[in-house]
Model the fold of this input.
Amino acid sequence: MALDHCDGLLLLESGCVVNPATKAWMDLTPYPPPPPLIEEQEEVKTYPEEHLVFDPTLSPHFEVLIIPHLLPFDKDRSKKQPPQNSAWPPSPLVLNVFSSRTREWEERPFVREGEAAGAMADVASVRGTHYAAYWRGTLYVRCQSNFVMRLSLLDNKYRIIHRPVDAEAREFSSRYLGKSKQGVYFASLSKDRLLVWLLDEPCGDMKWVLMHQTDLGPSLATSHKLDGHWILHHINYECSTWLFPKGRKPLTLARENFEWNSDDDDIVNDAAEDTVKRRCDEYALILGFRPYKEILFIESMDRGYAYHLSSSKFEELGKLHPVSLHGLPNEHLDVELSFPYTPCWIEEFPQPELDCKLNSIWKP
Done:
């Protein structure tokens, strides 16, 4: 399972960073014990999330940061609770950081700029899926239920940015933090109402600017039964035997179906007799942003779509799940984590003592 991604690299649950384009990988284990966050407060419980940062235009090296998130406190008031004035996150916030430059873990303190997110008892929330974006030496992590943590790897400082107000407290809402053409974006999709904000950072003043809003209901009402461009890559007996019981053939994919041209502005969904109508209880999910063009990917009725923010054009990309997988239980078809993937063709990372040469740290 992929825990995180950044500019062509994947961080896997097994404890390694891989480059699928070149089939190279680096082991991060063993993981270090978590550093103490707040002394003499044993009731404070956290869970860790690993985040990968990598920008091949600046350096061939990557880093992995382990960021703690608060778990809910016990509702039993008879048990010890954290002081109401205990702020989260603490300052300094000491994180475990792995660097491919040294191939070692280190404890790195980050000093907070500005106010904390709030008191511990108020900030703690149920564990969920978190998204992050790495932009110009800064990592933006969606934390807890209502704020984003901005960590600068250039000066080891962090700042709390509260989530856009209109993205809060809806009956059902798919939310996504990501990067695209102009920087860091936040999107919310609730009952087909799409809102997209861009983070504006003039002179250090962080604010979300609403740049797009629309009702996607009419566009999602009817879908064509097109195969489109969505495929499962590298599914075979060796890597996923549980997908194919005995007597069933592994999924085979044609290379010509692998490409999708997002630069094609002539987007027309031709009318087709073979269509499927959307159920009244069907929700749409945000899959991610295209990294270098303002396009948002959406999933509804097991189908993928591309929504062009600049032109409001809506493009159906076809079935998200191959036909061979529709015999599986529904729980195996749910999207738990999604991100657009851009291949990185750097074959090897440099050795620790040679920063400017591409050599053989990567294991083939």
Observations:
- The chain has a mean pLDDT of 76.
- Residues 1-73+85-162+343-364 form one domain.
- The chain has two helices and 24 strands.
